[in-house]
Design brief:
Length: about 280
């Protein structure tokens, strides 16, 4: 989720500033994004997935507007890796970006837990949820993600609704679509060029649309930092093995590996299509 592949050039003394901006951008994204999940799950403030999806989309747009000039506002390790593969983002900067993104997501989860701790406790008591025990993913879902979505699929046969393979496919496809649109909207070679002020809004809209379709299956992560940072916080906050590795395991393959592969596929697809178009334009010139 970015407006540029690489951050603006900076002197060596300010080399940490882009990483700090990535951490702050991801903090903002997760604060608003999983904040909307907190409000929906623990207070009933949201009505339906689309409202949550719109908040996520707006959070992405705001993070890009705020931090794009400083770091490119990737705010997603999968996007950072895709830009390193296809847009010349320096590989030496990938570890710093990813660490900052995960740290920002963790910090946002910690702040939300501090703000919503009373509401979370009331929700768990009212629903007979014992934190860390089987079934407590119904409250842990506000941090890490689960398949199928615990807010929509419950009961003894809920796991049959979405297999691990289907969850991996959903996360990979959703992230591939997101990366494809990011690459398309930020490609300065295309004609007509998308006006710069519109790019964050369009990326946010694309994310909201994808979330509205796939969130019932996997909660629609599409961002390893968004899942891993809050999931690690939930593990520290008492959810234990319900958070890591989760009741069905597989969170590394579904919510980390699949988005990385999906973003790479989406970036590759756009670059391949664009190169083909450039060749046709050259042949017709």
């Amino acid at each position: 989720m970015t407006t540029t592949a690489s951050p603006p050039a900076a002197p060596a003394c300010t080399a940490l500033r882009p990483c700090l901006a990535e951490g702050c951008g991801t903090f903002l994204l997760v604060l608003f994004g999983i904040g909307s999940v907190h409000a929906a799950v623990f207070t009933g403030a949201q009505s339906g997935i689309w409202q949550i999806a719109v908040v996520w989309g707006a959070a992405v747009a705001l993070a890009i507007y705020a931090f794009g000039p400083m770091s490119g506002a990737h705010i997603n390790p999968a996007v950072t890796i895709a830009f390193a593969l296809f847009r010349g983002f320096p590989w030496r900067r990938v570890p710093g970006y990813v660490a900052a993104q995960v740290a920002g997501a963790f910090a946002a989860a910690a702040l939300l837990h501090a703000l919503f701790s009373g509401a979370i406790a009331r929700y768990e008591t009212a629903n007979g949820i014992v934190r860390g025990a089987p079934g407590s993913e119904r409250s842990a879902m506000a941090y890490g993600e689960y398949f199928p979505n615990p807010g929509l699929a419950r009961g003894a046969d809920a796991a049959a609704a979405v297999s691990a393979a289907q969850a991996m496919a959903a996360e990979a496809i959703g992230t591939a679509l997101l990366a494809f649109f990011v690459f398309s909207l930020t490609d300065s070679r295309r004609r007509p060029v998308v006006p710069a002020p519109a790019v964050p809004l369009l990326i946010g809209l694309a994310l909201a649309i994808i979330i509205s379709v796939l969130a019932p299956l996997t909660q629609a992560g599409f961002n390893p930092a968004r899942d891993l940072g809050p999931r690690l916080f939930a593990w520290c906050a008492g959810w234990g093995r319900v958070a890591v590795p989760g009741p069905r395991g597989g969170f590394l393959t579904v919510y980390v590996l699949s988005p990385v592969l999906g973003a790479a596929a989406g970036g590759w697809a756009w670059e391949r299509l664009r190169r083909a178009q450039l060749r046709r334009e050259g042949a017709c010139a």
